[in-house]
Amino acid sequence: MHTSASDRVPAHVAIVMDGNGRWARRRWLPRVAGHKQGVEALRQVVRACLERHIPVLTVFAFSSENWSRPADEVSGLMELLSLALQREVPSLLDNGVRLHFPGDRAGLSARVVQGLEAAEERTAHNQRLVLNVCFNYGGRWDIVQAARQLAERGVEITEDSLSSAMALSHVPDPDLLIRTGGETRISNFLLWQSAYTEFVFTDTLWPDFDAAALDRALAEFAQRERRFGKTSEQLTDAPASAVADTRLHA
Fold it and tell me: What domains are defined for the chain?
């Protein structure tokens, strides 16, 4: 297979940040303490992506199913989001990180929505890294809302039109999806976008996930042969430019 070193670096990494609660429980701490440590882990991973020139990072922060968790945990997560926006946005702004918050905002409080919109607006011109923080997001919700948009506009539903209406239409589909915490499922995350994504599952709990753990996932990704429906022989015989074009557009 003809690939350069740059071909083996994913253009888009997605992460299901799982294990905050178990991390806290093992230390006899409240679950919210695990979520707070999870914010520190995200800070480290963002820095690592910047250093490794990965242009897009998407993380699953709060799923549409997470509302069923205990009320005190949900309220703690909402408060943590508000505090994180206040504390982290200035640093993200300085480091060229552009924030997006894909998800259903109809179920969020006005204060939370205002905070998300303000963060997106402040970082809108940054170009080093796109950071998608999926909040109140679900893959099925994303497909339904995209189809509804097209139907309301009278647009024919095709793969291309549906992709253009998705909540992450501003970035390419993920090359690599990492799930921490030992579970081996994607839990309604990026269902449409993950058709040709490579998956790496790790037992590391999210609060313990750092740059070294990211590098291990990147190393595993680099060993994968991404065929996009073709055979290994077809990829071997194809010129490098054709392989790269397939990788970007499949």
Answer: 5-139+173-249 (3.40.1180.10)
Contacts of 14 (CB under 8 A, 6+ apart): 57, 58, 59, 60, 174, 176, 177, 178, 189, 190, 193, 194, 197
Buried b (16+ CB within 10 A) or exposed e, 8-30: ebbbbbbbbbbbbbbbbeeeeee
- For residue range 82-134, list pLDDT tens digits in order: 778 888 999 999 999 999 999 999 878 888 899 999 999 999 999 999 999 99
**Cα–Cα nearest to 10, from 210, 220, 159, 212:** 220
Given the residues 18, 142, 173, 175, the one annotated as active site: 18
18 flagged as catalytic:
yes
Each residue's pLDDT tens digit, 41-58: 999 999 999 999 999 999
Question: Which letter does DSSP use for residue 172 in this model?
Answer: P
Q: Picking from 42-46, 146-150, 228-232, which range would have the lowest pLDDT averaged per residue?
A: 228-232
Catalytic, out of 7, 20, 66, 160: 66
pLDDT in tens, 180-225: 999 999 999 999 999 999 999 999 999 999 999 999 999 999 999 7
- Closest alpha carbon to 109 in 140, 133, 75, 61: 75
